[in-house]
Specification:
The structure holds 2 protein chains of 2 kinds. Chain A is an alpha/beta fold. Chain A is 41% helix and 15% strand. Mean pLDDT of chain A is 94; it is low at 398-403. Mean pLDDT of chain B is 84; it is low at 247-253. The chains are: A alpha/beta, B alpha+beta. Chains A and B meet through helix 10 and helix 11 of A and strand 2, strand 3 and helix 2 of B. The complex binds pyridoxal-5'-phosphate. Pyridoxal-5'-phosphate binds at residues 73-75, 78, 102, 104, 149, 153, 178, 180-181, 201, 212 of chain A.
Chain lengths: 403, 279
């Protein structure tokens, strides 16, 4: 019936837009020159690299094109932002970030702790909202950098980065934003945000994998992560990934086009809401994880009590639907995701939480089909669950569970 | 994505023996919703023959498949026959499980064991006491379970133990204890041949043991702290290794790491091993 995949995992990665692929292709074939070369065959390609830089700069509202540094992806951009700042401010040994960052930031911070840095991990509340006052109170003269994500990848919840930006600017502290999950979903403007650094990743907005950007505001003090040639003004040496760069530039254009099309933007939200409301109303064991109002429009994270997330994903996979889960089993760890735990989501539903993330390519039919399949999947698993009282159609009480 | 065998896929898609037995002779529960997997096993007996077995499982695909496998394997067996089944048999029935999912098969075995104890009328009220101290508080795993699983599955690293029992997989505070248990269990295995053959160790045997010890005992410990070790050369009783500390700036690590490697090799291989660090 459905021989094509219904892809509702766009926070993990996205399809390369057809326009992006087409723009990239010549750089694999006819136009393979090195933009740093002293001949037109290569030199001409430099114009394409610079065009892409300008496209990304416009998407981010950057004042100068050279504030855009091309990297291999957001993991590198996040590492470069934090390590590069610490390398510059060698006497400052304190970092502020959040408990719910992507591992690209979190695991770097854990490593830095082992090396003698102190790290403050700002908590979130039950709905995933950041405790901004906690963040403000944590700042000291020893703080080298504040690194906060714009939108959370698991719940879509947005953080008040604008407020934090104003605060950091006033205190003279370097502010880095991991904006990977915001790009393409809401307008991102580095001047409104007042950030010094901002990381994005191509493959989250319909460019290919392996290309990213670090926005570096003019005058920001930063040491490079890598040493080598003069590319990217020696801030990020290495021969340019030309097809990737051209791809991310084209994808940036498409983002601007999409965000200026209010109908298209509203449609993503409408489909997400339709899916979410459908699940919450049809399934009595379903609960929303995360702030319903302050989040990006494409993401919904629903916890299904008494059943386990990996099993849900496997059953969905059988039906051609791709989603993801914050359950322990699906990640290969033994605990539910650090994000859900930081939010204090009860274990009864944290293990059964599923993230659906849409894109501008998601269709009505796909959501319709998913809404048909999900109750079937959930009910099949409830029938197997020892915690589900099938006769009374509800979960067993905690005293029954404690047994 | 996990590499599940076709058998596992078949059994989580269409599990056999799902449900409850209303007039069951024994009902046991293992695991908990907090831990992320739980199994309730229902058995119906005729004399000492298990005539029916059903289950309900909260857990991932491999937990469902393991439960289904268990019930299929014990149906029609006598209690005596069923009591011989280990988690390895469940894994074999499934054609294998990913390493990180081994604990699902152990959960099946635990349920069976608990059920048989109940049938035999053994009290299981003080189960934790007679199973030894609880080592992993997060997942409630006891010392005896850890030791048994290490022996039955020839486990050699903390990671193995975590894969099979979950112990150490959450806060990690019990990892040093697991290391101690592993050391004891491994020492009893390695020590046996060494004790019986009092002849001086051959070079080949020594090299093998050094390699094994580095791979199975030392490396996992170092890797947990972000370090690593390469065996560069072995010359008689001199072992040349390259060590990578968890951070390039730390001076302390060098000395402690070398001592750790040398002490462990002395303990597991030979008393007069000398470790030389190659930079
Ligand atoms: C919030 C966030 N930051 C960073 C990353 C890492 O991006 P990349 O895959 O480009 O390294 C991701 C992607 O998974 C993400 O969601």
């Amino acid at each position: 019936m459905h021989n094509t995949i219904i892809y509702l995992d766009n926070n993990a990665t996205t399809m390369v837009a057809p326009e992006v692929l087409e723009a990239m292709l010549p750089f694999f074939t006819r136009r393979y020159g090195n933009p740093s070369s002293m001949h037109d065959f290569g030199g001409d390609v430099e114009h394409d690299v610079e065009k892409a830089r300008n496209q990304v700069a416009r998407m981010l509202g950057a004042e100068y094109d050279y504030e855009i540094v091309f990297t291999s992806g957001a993991t590198e951009s996040d590492n470069m932002a934090i390590l590069g700042t610490l390398q510059y401010y060698r006497d400052k040994k304190h970092i502020i970030t959040t408990k719910v960052e992507h591992p690209a930031v979190l695991n770097l911070c854990r490593q830095l702790e082992r090396e003698g840095y102190s790290v403050t991990y700002v908590p979130v509340d039950r709905e995933g909202n950041l405790d901004v006052d906690f963040l403000f109170d944590s700042v000291s003269d020893d703080t080298a950098i504040v690194s906060v994500m714009y939108a959370n990848n698991e719940t879509g919840v947005l953080f008040p980065v604008e407020t934090i930006g104003a605060f950091c600017k006033q205190r003279g502290i370097t502010f880095h934003i991991d904006a990977v999950q915001a790009i393409g979903k809401i307008p991102v403007d580095v001047n409104a945000l007042q950030c010094d650094l901002l990381a994005i990743s191509g493959h989250k907005f319909h460019a290919p994998k392996g290309i990213g950007v670090l926005y570096v505001r003019r005058g920001t003090r930063l040491r490079p992560l890598l040493y080598g040639g003069h590319q990217e003004k020696a801030r990020r040496p290495g021969t340019h990934n030309v097809p990737g760069i051209v791809g991310i530039g084209t994808a940036a254009d498409l983002v601007m086009k999409h965000l200026s099309n209010s109908e298209e933007v509203a449609n993503v939200k409408r489909l997400r809401d339709r899916l979410e409301n459908g699940l919450l109303s049809q399934l009595s064991n379903a609960h929303l994880n995360g702030n319903k109002n302050k989040r990006v429009d494409n993401t919904t994270n629903v916890g299904f009590e008494f059943i386990e997330g990996e099993a849900i994903l496997l059953y969905l996979n059988e039906k051609g639907i791709a989603a993801s889960s914050g359950s322990a089993c699906s990640s290969g760890s033994l605990e539910p995701s650090h994000v859900l735990r930081a939010m204090g989501v009860p274990f009864t539903s944290a293990h059964g939480s599923i993230r659906f993330s849409l894109s501008r390519y998601t269709t009505e039919d796909e959501i319709q089909y998913t809404l048909q399949v999900m109750p079937e999947v959930v009910n099949r698993l409830l029938a197997i669950s020892p915690y589900w009282d099938a006769r009374n159609k509800k979960g067993k009480s905690m005293t029954q569970l404690a047994h | 994505m996990w590499e599940y065998t076709d058998k596992v896929k078949e059994l989580y898609t269409n599990p056999k023996n799902v449900g409850e037995i209303s007039d069951a002779d024994v009902v046991v529960e293992v695991g908990s919703i907090v831990c992320g997997d739980a199994l309730t096993l229902y058995l119906k007996l005729d004399g000492d023959i298990i005539v029916d077995a059903k289950f309900k499982t909260f857990g991932c695909g491999s937990a469902i498949a393991s439960s289904s496998a268990l019930t299929e394997m014990i149906k029609g067996k006598t209690i005596e026959e069923a009591s011989m089944i280990t988690n390895k048999d469940i894994v074999d029935f499934l054609g294998g499980l990913p390493d990180q999912k081994m604990h699902c098969s152990v959960m099946g075995q635990e349920a069976l064991e608990k059920a048989i104890k109940k049938i035999k009328g053994e009290t299981i009220e003080d189960e934790h006491e007679d199973e030894g101290a609880v080592i992993c508080q997060c997942f409630g795993v006891t010392e005896n379970v850890i030791r048994r699983v290490i022996r039955e599955n020839n486990l050699t690293t903390v990671e193995d133990v975590t894969n099979y029992t979950k112990a150490g997989g959450a806060c990690g505070s019990c990892i040093p204890k697991i290391e101690d248990i592993l050391k004891e269990e491994l020492a009893s295995v390695v020590a046996q041949p060494a004790a019986t053959t009092m002849k001086p160790m051959s070079n080949i045997k020594r090299m093998q043991l050094v390699e094994e010890t580095i791979h199975n005992v030392i490396r996992p410990v170092l890797m947990r702290d972000g370090g690593d070790i390469d065996l560069v050369d072995i010359e008689g009783k001199k072992v040349y290794v390259a060590l990578r500390g968890h951070c390039a700036h730390c001076v302390v690590s060098d000395v402690t790491m070398k001592n750790l490697v040398e002490d462990t090799l002395k303990e597991f291989v030979e008393n007069d091993i000398e470790v030389i660090e190659v930079k």
